[in-house]
Specification:
The chain has helices spanning 27-38, 101-112, 117-121; strands at 4-10, 13-21, 45-48, 70-75, 80-86, 89-95, 123-127, 150-157, 160-161, 164-165. By secondary structure, it is an alpha+beta fold.
Length: 170
């Protein structure tokens, strides 16, 4: 196996970053490289995307790499406490910081608020008290810093005008 593409976000790293590493690296080595590259705290944990628990750092990165590489997240928070409000009802759950906004929306809209997939597709998560609507692939950990380890969303209609999307409406 040749170099492995590693796509990652992390605490203080809002944009998706990319590096290539050799197939002989374990997650401890990957973490060390990323700490040095970005000046991160040494107590960060490394998560696979959409995983609720940190990865065992002794495992080889190649064991988790797919054909397009691997997606990870580095954060000091072990979990992010998420609240989602819709129609004056609020639900709560703890997710790993590498959890995507898409996974949270699916959990809230379809499983907690019992929306059909069609209804859910017409809604987006918006950070409470703002007009900010994180992209679906955004990791929760990019939206909070340790020690806060929480984020609050409102589930709002994705407004359309003449077939197009209107940003910032709720």
């Amino acid at each position: 196996m040749t170099a492995i593409d590693v796509f990652y976000q992390g605490e203080g790293l809002r944009e998706i970053e990319h590096i290539e590493i050799g197939p002989d690296h374990d997650f401890r080595a990957l973490k060390s490289i990323l700490i040095e590259k970005h000046g991160l705290e040494t107590d960060v944990l490394i998560f696979l995307e959409d995983s609720d628990e940190p990865v065992n750092e002794l495992l080889m990165v190649r064991e988790h790499a797919g054909r397009v590489g691997i997606k990870t997240h580095l954060h000091r928070c072990r979990h992010v406490e998420v609240t989602v409000t819709f129609n004056n009802e609020t639900v709560r759950h703890r997710f790993g910081p590498g959890t995507t906004v898409t996974r949270v929306k699916l959990w809230a809209a379809e499983h907690k608020f019992k929306m059909s997939p069609e209804e859910a597709s017409e809604h987006v998560l918006q950070i409470s008290g703002t007009h900010e609507r994180p992209a679906p692939g955004t990791h929760l950990g990019t939206l909070t810093m340790c020690p806060k380890c929480s984020v609050a969303f409102d589930l709002v209609p994705d407004q359309r005008v003449n077939g197009g999307f209107m940003e910032g409406l709720s």
